[in-house]
Structures are given as C-alpha cells and as structure tokens.
Amino acid sequence: QISKVVAREILDSRGNPTVEVDVLLDDGALGRAAVPSGASTGTREAVELRDGDPSRYLGKGVLRAVNAVNGEIASAVLGLEASAQSEVDNVLIALDGTANKSRLGANATLGVSLAVAKAAAAAAGEPLYRFLGGPEASLLPLPLFNIVNGGAHADNPLDFQEFMVAPVGAATLADAVRMGSEVFHTLRLSLKKAGHSTAVGDEGGFAPSMSTAGEVLSFVTQAIADAGYTPGKDIAIALDPAASEFYRDGAYHYVGEGLARSMPEHVDYLAGLVASYPIVSIEDGIAQDDLAGWKLITRTLGARVQLVGDDVFCTNVSLLREGIAAGIANSILVKVNQIGTLTEMLDTAQAARAAGYSVVMSHRSGETEDTTIADLAVATGCGLIKTGSLSRSDRTAKWNQLIRIEEELGSAARYAGASSLTSRP
Ligand code: PGA
Ligand code: ZN
C-alpha cells in the first residue's frame, strides 16, 4: 500500500528544473522516478506544466506540478495498492480530468506513475523489467545511438536533428555498446582531423558545423568502415530529421542549404539519401501536420525502410489508431512523458504491435540519471531503443543499465539485432 508520496524540483541534463517523485509503501519499499523533458515537442503531447514565474528558473520552474503531487495527487493515491498500476493510473487520469493532463501536468502524473511501478517492483523484490514484463522478458533492444546532433538539439546549421548508428550485426547488447563507442570515437578523430568542432549537443552526439545531411552521412558511414565494420551489415544508420521543426506553409525549409523543398521534393530527397547510405529507419521524416506527406513517404519508402512516427503520434493511442487507419508510418516512437502514465504508454505500444508497427522506446533530449526506460524496453520486449549518444551520463546511464540487465539474464538474454526493425533492407 502507498503510504507516502513526495515530489521535489531537481535539475535535468540541460540544467532546467524537472519533477522527481518518491513513493513509499507501508512495507518500507521505495520507488523514485525523475521526469524527462523534450525540446522538439509534438503539438499534441500531454502538457508539461511549467510555472511561468519569471522570477524563478526563467519561468521554467515546476513547483505547480510538485505541489500537485504533494497535495491533491498524494491524497488520492494514499492507501492504494502499488502493484495495481492501471488502477493507480486511472485515478491520476480521472483526477486530472482533462484530455491532455493540462490541469495537474503530465510531469506530475508521470513522476507518480513511474515511481509507483518502481516501488511495487522493489516490494516484490524483482527488477523492474521482470516485474512488469514477467519471466519471459529477456529481449535486449537494438540501440539507436545518436552520434551527430542538429536541429533543436544543437546550435549548428544542421536541419536534421539526429543521425544514429544501429549495431544490427552485434552478438549481444554489450557488444553493440562497444561497437557504438568505437564508431563514436573514430568519428571524433575524423571530425577533428577535418577541422570540425568535436563539442557535443544535447544528446551527447557531435554537433559539427555542417550544413547538409549528406556531409554528415558521409562522415558517419566512413567512421563505421574506419572502425572496422561493414556499413549496413554490421552497423546501419537511422535518422530523425524531426521535420515538424522545419516545415511551414506547406514546404520544408532547409536553412543549412538556404532553400525550401516542396513536400514531394522533400520525400524525393529522403529517398535519395536512402539510396546512397545504409539507412534502415527514418523517424519524423515528415511533419506532424503533413498527412499527405506521411502518405507519400509511406507509399514510397514504407516497404523498405522503418518509418517511425514521433510527433505525429505522441504516444497517444487515438492518434496512433487514426494513423493506422490512414496507412501512415510502420513504427511508433514511445516516450512516457508524451502521454503521462505508464499504463497509457503500454496500451499504445500494445496497439502498435497488434497492427504490425514496431515500437521504439525513447528518452527525451532533456534527461536525468533515471534509467527506467531501459527496463521498459526489456519489459515490453519492443526490441528497439533510442537514448542518445555514447557520452554524457544522462545517456550512458541507460546503456549501462541495459548492460546490467543483460548480465543478470545470463544465458536467457537474447539480443534483438535487426529482428525488431520493420525495414526490409
Ligand atoms: P525531444 O527530441 O526530446 O527534444 O522531443 C527527441 C525526438 O524528437 O525524438
Ligand atoms: Zn523524434
């Protein structure tokens, strides 16, 4: 039974305030969870409540969400069974009473929801991945390592937000991490040699002052080869252009190149990149409001490439169902804070897989030392995860947790490799 709920304001990886929640049970078990925060957010995400008080944290304080947890929410969940996750989450949803968690804040509800799950796992004496996923939970996900940052995550001219490498040919998760790290460091040397900055962006990937995706992809493909791997076979490439960020008035505005591409030209350009580089996955290649664009890219590339919907679905089961009915994308990114409770995220993931869409577990660009999503990836058996680069503790914390889970599973552990991708290279 939940006996105490305490929230506080802590810092995320960008130095902005965020919510952390402790849930204590009457048997002494403790669950602690910290809430992440996005920069390139979808317009239909659940609401992250910020104080807007300019005298604190430049308006970004989260004391309203903290007070909601310590007051109203604590009163409503005290005495509930922590192991009854969906019951607790339904209380949170009903108490908030809005469609997008705008009254209490999704940062308030999510902190409680995840801390309750972790407290229940602690009380059961089980690791979170097994408590939620059962004894069969043994699939270690294919990592998508974000080694070059652009868009809203860096101050360079790159229009595309994320350039990722995926060790599809690794034998184990620990091997995949090693291969990713080797490519990361090999890329660092080649950038340095070419006179580029090796400073990193919000997710720990390099943020060189390049202006085209092609230039980055050439460097990344070469770094894969220079590290001793075969591009495509051992290590493939994934993109998140986060296209909602540079789409306006019906066109895609490439600031780095100083030109705009019409929707069909933009899809053509992406298809050209797929033809030239070993790209197996594209997330948000199309803007959230460009339904015609989503239909065209799915028709054009959907049979070959994993097309992941992030902003367009917002981890929201209704938006996902609309997308499935419209025949767009073949994969969904799930971010717990886009929807605000663990139960709703799990429902969305399940609906996606039932429709044959793959599921990518995801961090946000603003993270903390909290590693819950590593466990959630294994618990759901989704087989895919993106949680940033191979530097900065807010990112490596998740990779390290997956290494620990793989070790703990021992001979039961299986590494997903390319098996969970919806792409058919
Ligand atoms: P965000 O970026 O956390 O800044 O939204 C991640 C993503 O777009 O996938
Ligand atoms: Zn995205």
SSE layout:
Elements: E1 2-11, E2 17-25, E3 30-34, H1 63-77, H2 85-96, H3 106-124, H4 128-133, E4 139-140, E5 142-149, E6 162-166, H5 173-193, H6 213-226, E7 236-240, E8 247-248, E9 251-254, E10 259-262, H7 263-276, E11 279-283, H8 291-301, E12 306-309, H9 317-326, E13 331-334, H10 336-339, H11 342-354, E14 358-362, H12 372-380, E15 384-386, H13 393-409, E16 414-415
Parallel strand pairs: 4-16, 5-15, 7-11, 11-12, 12-13, 13-14, 14-15
Antiparallel strand pairs: 1-2, 2-3, 5-6, 6-7, 8-9, 9-10
Helix pairs in contact: 1-2, 1-3, 2-3, 5-6, 7-8, 12-13
Bound molecules: 2-phosphoglycolic acid and zinc ion.
Zinc ion (ZN) binds next to loops.
Keywords: Cytoplasm, Glycolysis, Lyase, Magnesium, Metal-binding, Secreted
Enzyme class: lyase
Subcellular location: Cytoplasm; Secreted; Cell surface
